[in-house]
Please model this.
Amino acid sequence: MKNLRTANRLIASFVTILMLATPLLAQQRRSVPKRPAVAPEPAPTFDSLFAADSYKVYCEVRGVGGLIHSPAVNDLLDPVMKLGGPPKEFKLLVKWLGAHADALGGSRMLVAGWPSRPNLPTVIIAVEFSSPEEAKKFYPELRDFLPKFLPTPTPTPEPTPTPKVSGSPSEAHVRAEVTVSTPKAEKDPEPLPPYQMKQAGSLVFISDIAFTFRNLRPPGSKGLDEDQNFLLARNRFSSESLFLYVDLKSIEKEEKEQRQKYEEEAQKRSEAEAANPPKEAETVPEEAPEAELQPLPPSDLPSEQPAELEATVEPPDSSATAPSDTTSENHVDMTPAFSSLYGALFGGQSKWPEAIGAALVFENDAYVVRTLIINSAENKSSAIPFVPQFASGPAITPEAPGIFPADVDLFVSASLDYPQIYEGMLKAFADSQEMMRKTSEKYGGRPVTDIQQMETPFAVYEKKLGLKVKDDLLPLLGSELALALPRKAKKAVNEPASDERDRKQDSADAPQNNASAGPNPIVAIAVKDREAVSRLIPKLIESFGLKGANLLAQTERRDGTELVSYAGVFSYAFVGDFLVVSSDAAETRHVVDAYLNHQTLSADSHFRNYTRWQSHQVLGQVYVAPGLIEEYTLGSGISGVALRDKMNEFLTGVNPVIDPVTYSLSNDGLGPLHELHMPKNLLQVLVAGMMVGSSASQPASNEAVAQSMVRTVASAEETFKATTGNGAYGSFDQLVSAGLLSKEMLEKYGYRMEVSAAKDKFEVTAEPIEYGTTGKLSYFIDQSQVLRAGDHGGGTATLSDEPMNQ
Model:
């Protein structure tokens, strides 16, 4: 009893303390100040959306609505829509964009791709509007359109497995019926669309998977708008309509990591194989002695050192025993040296830039493409990233247009740093030799120190010429190197090509005119000392294997200009400050005459007008004349009367005068800048030609697909009969319900298909939707599984048509 009273007192005391403390606790809670509400994160902006390490490719389109209505876009869409026969999804997109061009107005659009981190969308598109209200207004319109352009794929039900036949036929039939009629336990989830949409602030997003803004730019990460390379490129192309940025440094880093991972995995596999070597077959030692006991005929006895035995019979090499013999030196094969020079010039390790910025804009009836190469600090002089030995010289005002004739079809000029190119070729050759030595040591077992070092290709020339290339030849050359392609002679347009007499004459003259069938390029090299170069030229010619060529030299002098030709094989002349070289003496003579008569490129108004946009100081220059362009565009062959008529009909609305294509390479301090000016009408012709070519191949492609689809339907019929059909063929809808076919097969590939089925018979036919455009042949197949085809002008094929090759 005493213990019970003690327990009651303790309980009463605890309840009393709890009742007294409750008001105090409540009062304390009320006295605690409220925690301030967390401010919502600011809406993402167009410029601060991504981290610098989120994506490797970034594209920005400015003034989307204006571009949709601009001639720059519509003039290129015209041949696509008229000649190409684009898919209905493309037509739907073009129509929808045209209807919403005003709503897009001055909006900007960005496209980012090639993610650098996991859990990011493969592609993300963002459209920026002038205000959040405009974005909210546009969002539902885009949401309603996307299912039409990117429809949600219809899930293909898994076909019911064919039951295994065992036991009596009646038992197998019962099991098949039970298997087919069993309903699924759970309903399949609704398929998700192939895209995700989101609207935040003034931005509307489309991506392939869902994302969060914190994942696009994690807290504390460096933003893309803070990356110096990105800012350099974006500020340089701030006014162009389309801007593209590629982070090559991240691409190279990713490839290096993947290569390192592959090497580590290969090393682990090698170590595992070394730790657990495969067991040798026990039968090998038993069979080997039997093979050794087999006698061999004397003629089949192997020779231990066949190469050395043959060498003892051969007469000694005169060049090896008498190195001072000049006669043997004249017959030295220079082919290996040429190959080594070529490999050193175009070989070596490519020097990737850190990034590339590009832009596209429409100016003065021309599409202008500008590309900025952003190099690393140790790679500033590399103007062409993937040609490692191309080293630009100082910026120049090209002087070669002042010596080349005005009627050339192609002109190219570049400023080169010959000493740097020379050193780069030597390094590339040394790196190649070092790699060969290491490879030989790794796989051949020979130590690196035992492998003989080969001579550089320059050393071979230096021995023959008796001079040093770096010290004696390169100082004589200026920095400008130019090339020109003379205009090709064309036959008259009204000359009958089918005349038998002309064909015989052309055939008779072919051997004689073979050398002059095409224009020979002309090379002009700037020189600093004409007298010194003229003394070296005979030695250079002899070094190419033309011993005694000086005896064949013929010299012409014209107003102080000297022209030298060697039996029509080689010719040169000093024109101005250039050494002009050609394999055709007539072309060299034409250069001299044009220079003396002031009929050069620099005096041609056409050339001056279309290169006026270029900087005064450039590193390179290209000019492609209209004649050469027309030869490879308007003069290109288009087979088929209907195709030529379609092409000619389109060309009637295009400006017939094709302007030149011009290009320049410069450096304004930000990096090498490549700029190309492409005439609008030329690009229209090129697009039209591609569309006509694609439309020509479309019927054949559709016919091949139609054949495959018809056979697929026939195979599905047999499967349906053996399973779900219980011995009967099915209609197209029944085949789709059974998961054997998809509804997209009906008219998606330019053919219209029809399926008719009875209990033990079926027929499948396919006809082109538009005869001649989507296809010509019609197809027929039935339960015999024999595919038949015929040209019925778009009509239905029947059982009476000829079978096709199976």
